[in-house]
Write a structure and sequence with these properties.
The protein has 393 residues and is an alpha/beta fold. The radius of gyration is 22 Å and the shape is globular. A 7-stranded mixed β-sheet has the order 1-7-6-5-4-2-3, sandwiched between helices. The protein has 2 domains: 251 residues, Type I PLP-dependent aspartate aminotransferase-like (Major domain) (Aspartate Aminotransferase, domain 2, 3-Layer(aba) Sandwich), CATH 3.40.640; 135 residues, Aspartate Aminotransferase, domain 1. Helices cover 36% and strands 15% of the residues. It comes from Pseudomonas tohonis. GO terms for molecular function: cysteine-S-conjugate beta-lyase activity; pyridoxal phosphate binding. This is Cystathionine beta-lyase. Keywords: Lyase, Pyridoxal phosphate. Belongs to the trans-sulfuration enzymes family.
């Protein structure tokens, strides 16, 4: 079935069809795994003309192409390139839109490794970064200068979950000829399609929900027609491709992505509501909650929410109490990733690195990833943790 035929179906149906063709796979449901570095040419003319879709292993493989083609259709992009990590995807996107002497705009709530990349790597090549309040909206215009090439967005923001006004900011960027990049890892194309809202390039960490099992590292970058040539040229120059096995596992994860995200949404909302009623919790940072900054933008633009959110504890608890809570959890583990089947929690404090806004928290802040464990078990694990928090404080 061709791509036009698939596009008429609902997203959950498309996910079962994209990136495979049993008619070309001897009837097997899934495409085979291709691994290798060397491509063989039959004639002198062929090798001189590089007459092959894959001239060398760094140019990709059928396995990589299956995932690229599937993601391109899923996101409504002109093309997709892959990287070995989500941060690698961010780097590819930014390298494709910047040059020495450029100025870029990045939200203060951005994923911290993206901030480090801008401050440490791009700065070495003469690209300056201005961090802005993620809730600035159309007022972003006052920060655009004559050498501003790129507006980076992340919705919702890392750790603190501010939802940016993407359409308003895109409109301003286009008026000034500024390229836009969106980190869309939290929502995925299931809940938000950046290109439908005018974004030029989207980046995602397939490590998270696309993989779904905490066993791959993968980044994906998509571009619209105007930005695709530069993105592909950047990719070809750097050969930052992922391993074939990771792409195969990502294709497998794609088949259940819709079901897992809908379940993550249900579980995330249930646990967030339960936490909002706990006396130990001062507030919940979840885009679907009216109290979350940018909730109206989320309600207008997004089709759902995933299973990642944060809470701020009530004041008065000690670090010893926090340690007693987190060190002895039975189900929640402490780890920096998310999107897998296991529940995770990390403490965070944005005060040490934010520069455009002042992060104010009345108590300790925790980010939670809701996994697939029994919900009562998860609640009981946190409830016992809260008891230890209070006792040790």
């Amino acid at each position: 079935m061709n791509k036009d035929d698939i596009s008429k179906f609902d997203i959950s149906t498309q996910l079962t069809m994209l990136g495979r063709d049993p008619a070309e796979q001897f009837g097997f449901v899934n495409a085979p795994l291709y691994k290798g570095s060397t491509i063989i040419y039959k004639t002198l003319d062929d090798i001189e003309a590089r007459r092959s879709r894959f001239s060398y292993g760094t140019a990709g493989s059928p396995t990589i192409a299956h995932l690229e083609d599937a993601w391109t259709q899923l996101t409504g992009a002109e093309g997709t390139v892959l990287s070995s990590s989500g941060l690698g995807a961010v780097a590819l996107a930014l390298f494709s839109t910047t040059k020495a002497g450029d100025h870029i705009l990045v939200p203060d709530s951005v994923y911290r490794p993206t901030r480090n990349f801008c401050n440490q790597m791009l700065a070495r090549y003469g690209v300056t970064t201005t961090y802005y309040d993620p809730m600035i909206g159309a007022d972003i215009e006052r920060l655009i200068g004559p050498n501003t090439s790129t507006l980076f967005l992340e919705a919702p923001g890392s750790q603190t979950f501010e939802v940016q006004d993407v359409p308003a900011m895109v409109a301003i960027a286009r008026r000034h000829g500024v390229k836009t990049i969106l980190d869309n890892t939290w929502a995925t194309p299931i809940f938000f399609r950046g290109h439908d809202h005018g974004i030029d390039l989207t980046v995602e960490a397939g490590t998270k929900y696309l993989g779904g099992h905490s066993d791959i590292l993968l980044g994906l970058v998509t571009a619209n027609q105007a930005c695709w040539p530069a993105l592909r040229a950047t990719y070809d120059a750097m050969s930052m491709l992922p391993g074939a096995e990771d792409c195969m596992q990502a294709l497998r994860g794609m088949r259940t992505l819709f079901l897992r995200l809908k379940e993550a949404e249900r579980r995330g909302l249930e646990l967030a509501r339960w936490l909002s009623e706990r006396p130990e919790v001062s507030r919940v940072l979840h885009p679907a909650f009216e109290s979350c900054p940018g909730h109206a933008h989320w309600k207008r633009d997004f089709k759902g929410s995933s299973g990642l959110f944060s809470i701020v504890l009530a004041p008065g608890y000690s670090r010893d109490g926090l340690a007693a809570m987190l060190d002895n959890l039975s189900i929640f583990s402490m780890g920096f990733s998310w999107g897998g089947y296991e529940s995770l929690v990390i403490p965070f404090d944005c005060r040490t690195y934010r520069t455009a806004t002042h992060w104010q928290a009345e108590g300790f802040a925790l980010r939670l990833q809701v996994g697939l464990e029994d919900m009562d078990d998860l609640k009981n694990d946190l409830a016992r943790g809260f008891e230890r928090l209070a006792a040790a404080s």
